[in-house]
Structures are given as structure tokens and as C-alpha cells.
Design a protein that fits this description.
9-stranded mixed beta sheet; alpha/beta; 11 helices; about 325 residues; Rossmann fold
Length: about 325
Amino acid sequence: MLTDLDEAGLWEYRSTYQAPADFDEFWRRTLAEAAEIPLDVRIVPVETGLRTIDVYDVTFAGYAGHPIRAWLRVPRVTSLIGEDALPGVVQFHGYGSGRGHALDDLLWASAGYAHLLMDTRGQGGGHAGGDTGDPVGYAGPTQPGFLTRGLQSPETYYYRRVFVDAVRAVQVLREYEHVDASRVAVAGASQGGGIALAVAGLVPDNVAALHAQAPLLSDIQRATRITDAAPYHEISTYLAAHRTSAADVFGTLGYFDGLGFAARATAPAWFSAGLMDGICPPSTAFGAFHAYAGRAKNINLWTYNGHDAGGPEDLADVLTAFNTLLQKGLSS
């Protein structure tokens, strides 16, 4: 059922979010520190029995040099150099999930893209399996889940590490020998959409396009006030116990809110939202969409859908758009 603004209200809505004064300096310093560490990419072929797609097990150095796992899936073709270099998509998965099995997520490679699916550190215990740990211990008290880990400071917050991992994942694919570095997009749903949006804002010159489907971590403070669903309830539950810490909590989260990254992102972008989404309320996706700095932007609102945000129909729209934008010789 409808639990947020109606369609007219969503088009009128503008968030009150304001980025911290040192937002840009915090992320400039964070990425500069990360850039001092070699990527240390290892790519190992995986036997899958597939005839049209090659799959590789990838490990690279993420935040602080921590090993991050990923799957790389590439169309099996014989000439992938020069003008025949492939466009690429770096995908980030949903909350609590992992990179899954080597045979999962074949869409992008089947469509002619080099596809890198990053494992999100510490996740993958409850849904599709993950293979990447998070060796950083918790800083301060936490609510079970990931949204409050290290919440006491932006320096220690969990998603600082995740977003650095994600930026470096894009670098991994852009440097892969068979990929055209100028045609690498980022994509994801829910948490994955939030991570993709962050990357688009952090390295706008390195991202060719964005797809953010029902993005998590956008307009965070509003989300905690209008939904009690997982995972935003982790923050509200934490604040119910730490009653005087709201200003500090949202001070930290301000460095990780999708609206801050949207205001700095310029790549052509496709957003989507389900009007009946009780997990990532549609106004939070619209908040990011309206804040998005790029002029070429679109948002699909799926009236009777929830957190799937249009599911395969939305993906079909984006696949057509990406083909037009990124695939040489193809048109809509």
C-alpha cells in the first residue's frame, strides 16, 4: 500500500539534506590515502561449463589493502583489442547479500559487457554467499547489521571502507586489458544502488553511466522517520537506546548520504523507485534524483511495485539505454 508521498508529491519533493562543510575534503583525503596502495589484482579463470561467457575469480586490494573478491564475467569472443574493446558494468549487490555463485548474474555479460560484480565486505551470510571479510573491528556500540558499525565517526564508519572498495573495483575493470575504460558504467539495486551512486559522485570522470534501482543510503534521515523496515530500523533502534546522540549520528551519516554524491555526479543516470516500497521509500530515491547534478537523468516510478522497483522491466529499460550509450554500433 502507499506509505509515502503520492506521485505528484514525489515530483515536488526536495530533501532538506545538507552535506557537511568538509564533505569534499573528507573524501579527497580518503581516496588519496587509498590510491597509495597498489590494486594488486589477481584474476583466476573458473571452469563453469558455459559456452558463451568466461568467468574469472577476481581479488584486489580495497580499503587499507584488504582483499576484496569479485566475479568478472566476459563474453567469449576471439578479438577484444583496440576498437573491439568491450564496454563494462561494475555491479554492487543488495544488503546482506554476497557475490553468489559463479553462474549467477549472467545478464550483463550476455548483453556484451565485461561485468564485474563486487563482493561487499563482511556480507553474504544471509542471502547469496559472500567470500570477503571485513577485518576492521567495530568502533563503539552497534545495532546488529551493518548500518551502525563504526557510526561514532566518519573515519570509522563501515561504508567508508565499502565505498573505497567500490571506487577501486571500477578502477580494476577500467584497467582490464579487454575493456574500453571510457565506457564503464556502475549499477546496483537497493544497497547496490546506493554504492553505485556514491561511486558516480566520488569519481565522476571515471563513470560513463549510472543505474540506481531503489537506492539505499539516500536521504537517510528522512528514511529513518518514515519506515521501520530493515535495514533502516537499525539506525532508529540504535537511536532509541542512544537518545542524545542523533546529531552526532546524522553528522556521520551526512558523509555517506546518496544526496551528497548525487550533487557531485554528472554521468547519464537512470533511477527507479516503487511507489509502494516500504524498505527504501520512493521519496528517498526522488530526493537523490532531484539532487543529481547530471543533466541526462531519468527516473522510472513503478506505481504498484515495492522494493523490486520494476524488477526485470526496469532492467530492460536500462539495458536498452546502456546499449545505445555504451555499445558501439547499436541503437535503441
